[in-house]
Design brief:
Mean pLDDT: 81
Number of helices: 4
Number of strands: 0
Low-confidence stretches: none
Shape: elongated
Number of domains: 1
Order of helices and strands: HHHH
Helix content: 55-70%
Distance between the termini: 94 Å
Radius of gyration: 34 Å
Largest sheet: none
Strand content: under 5%
Length: about 120
């Protein structure tokens, strides 16, 4: 609205100043409302949509498994893999004996001539 006033009243400098001030205030209100209300609301809606889509994918996978006649335990394992809150299994640590065999021993190698 403020820039339209500026363009209408280019001949009157008072009206130009007033129009620029209105345009500036409108811009500040727009940026403030976007950051305080609209962007957080959009992020919340986006998160809810992702959850809904994940639930639908899980349901579809379960129904497909039932229709295909898969083992119920296999279906359960497949469906559990969709749960993001489920704790992922940690990789097993390398056994110390195996790590010691693969690392070179300090000092001279066996069979090396002694000096």
């Amino acid at each position: 609205m403020g820039l339209i006033q500026v363009m209408k009243h280019l001949e009157d400098i008072k009206e130009v100043g007033h129009g620029i001030a209105v345009a500036f205030v409108a811009t500040v209100y727009g940026v403030g409302s976007a950051n305080i209300f609209f962007l957080p609301a959009a992020n919340k809606l986006r998160a809810r949509l992702r959850e809904a889509v994940a639930l639908q994918e899980t349901l579809l996978e379960g129904v497909v498994g039932i229709v295909e006649g898969l083992n119920p335990t296999l279906i359960r394992l497949k469906l559990e893999s969709f749960d993001p809150r489920r704790e992922q299994p940690r990789p097993k640590a390398v056994r110390p004996a195996l790590a010691a065999r693969s690392a070179p021993a300090p000092g001279p190698s066996p069979g090396a001539p002694a000096s």
